[in-house]
Design goal:
about 475 residues, mainly alpha, Ammonium transporter fold, two-stranded antiparallel sheet, 14 helices, transmembrane helix, Ammonium transporter
Length: about 475
């Protein structure tokens, strides 16, 4: 039997959308590489290879679990709004990894049932890249001390369930909270706040690296081996992020560009705002770096800027973006100092994702107060186009609910892993280095480097090897 053909699924406009979201997806993957470079410079040389291996694997696991079931969970909001019977089971049937819509050529799908199927299939890949970014950010909170196995389990659960559920509630114009006035653009709630909470729990339960806060007689502690790699990672991040973020919205024919919350926006202002956030965050980070003689903030100030302004990049005026990103970077620095006081060993992810994310979510409630959001074209009643209004109160409620959800799931997963397979490598393995522990081969580029060796009796090594 000849397969059906629906020409409305393969128009020139849809191919332009395919290309648009395809570029955004590739740029999200580049962000995974950027995080790898940043961490590759911040870890000690003896852990650089394992840093890359774990990051690549955890990114693939997170993306794979989003493909398996996570994207279908996000799609439930559309099935509910459009009145599809049994929306949860129908969305999963259509969009899980082996679902009809996920494995059928778009021109063979009836547009009355699956409109713009090609676009949503590419958007599925976009979500997979989104989950990969979330997984590598969680990995960054356990650098140089957390075992691979629990990290991979965390990547799977975060990518397949936790991040998708947060996406369903907070990201997309028909999501329950968005349709009541919550606003987001780049995924501050579902990605950064969720990841920030998980990172905080992971860094707390794993404990600090040896020598991080207290002197240790066998190591100098965690000293970055090459800030040049980290700088290259920031440069790659600055290149990829604007194109990735433009994928967080709808390009609607002759009507224009709308943020993912269905707020009126524009390509030009959204792109301009991203670069202005680089300037605001980067300048604030430079001030902090010179004042404290800490080069880290000269690098991550850029990320602090765009995360702090991330929820409102589609609706803010550029001068507002500058103010929000500049102030938000100091919030990130304050979170960094608080973690140091609490002896929690995470210099990037919790300050950026949790500190910057919460500030950014609340800032959007101030910048966007009174703006229309939510709903979808052609719908009536509670899902009418732009039927909700942005408010600081709804932004704050979203923060509380997201933090609570992430805290409960994070504690269950991370403490559960700690009590079963364990989180942390053995002390002698950490001292020796994870490259040698996991990947000792004659051809390893790090094999001939001196390593710290502790014998069965725990004898102290004869020389410092960090």
């Amino acid at each position: 039997m000849e397969a059906p053909f629906f020409p409305d699924q393969v128009t020139d406009h849809l191919f332009l959308l395919d290309f648009f979201y395809g570029v955004a997806t590739v740029c999200l993957i580049l962000i995974v590489g950027a995080v790898g470079l940043i961490d590759g410079g911040l870890v000690r040389r003896k852990n650089t290879l394992d840093n890359w291996v774990q990051k690549i694997v955890v990114a693939l696991i997170g993306a794979g679990c989003m493909w398996l079931i996570g994207y279908a969970i996000w799609q439930v909001q559309f099935y509910e709004a459009f009145g599809v019977p049994n929306p949860i089971s129908s969305a999963i049937k259509d969009w899980w990894a082996l679902g009809t819509n996920a494995q059928t050529f778009s021109q063979q799908l009836d547009p009355a049932v699956a409109p713009e199927a090609d676009v949503f299939q590419i958007f599925m890949a976009f979500f997979m890249a989104y989950a990969a970014v979330g997984a590598v950010l969680i990995h960054s909170a356990g650098l140089e001390r957390v075992k691979a196995a629990p990290m991979y389990v965390m990547g799977a659960i975060a990518g397949g369930l936790v991040i998708p559920i947060a996406l369903y509630f907070t990201w997309g114009s028909l999501s329950p909270l968005t349709n009541n006035g919550l606003h987001d653009y780049i995924g501050v709630y579902s990605l950064y706040i969720v990841v920030g909470v998980w990172a905080l729990i992971l860094a707390w339960r794993a404990g600090p690296r040896l020598g991080a806060f207290a002197p240790h007689d066998r190591t100098m502690g965690p000293i970055p081996h090459n800030f040049g790699f980290s700088g290259l990672g920031i440069a790659l991040l600055m290149f990829a992020a604007p194109f990735a973020f433009l994928g967080c919205g709808y390009w609607i024919g002759d009507l224009g560009y709308f943020g993912i919350s269905m707020t009126t926006s524009g390509f030009g202002i959204a792109m301009l705002n991203v670069f202005v956030s680089y300037i605001g965050g980067g300048l604030a980070g430079a001030l902090i770096a010179y004042r404290t003689k800490n080069p880290l903030f000269a690098l991550i100030g850029v990320a602090a800027g765009y995360i702090s302004a991330g929820a409102c990049l589609d609706i803010a005026k550029p001068w507002q973006t500058f103010v929000v990103s500049f102030v938000g970077t100091f919030v990130v620095f304050g979170t960094y100092k608080l973690l140091h006081r609490l002896r929690i060993d995470d210099k990037k992810i919790v300050p950026l994702a949790l500190g910057g994310g919460i500030f950014g979510a609340l800032a959007a409630g101030v910048v966007g107060a009174g703006m229309k959001t939510g709903g979808f074209f052609g719908l009536e009643g509670e899902y009418v186009f732009q039927g909700a209004t942005i408010s600081l109160g709804m932004q704050a409620l979203g923060v509380v609910l997201t933090v609570a959800f992430a805290a409960v799931t994070g504690l269950i997963v991370i403490v559960g892993l700690e009590k079963t397979i364990g989180l942390r490598v053995e002390e002698h393995e950490e001292l020796k280095g994870l490259d040698d522990h996991y990947w000792e081969t004659p051809t390893s580029p790090y094999h001939d480097e001196p390593v710290e060796v502790v014998d069965a009796r725990g004898s102290r090594p004869t020389a410092e090897t960090d």
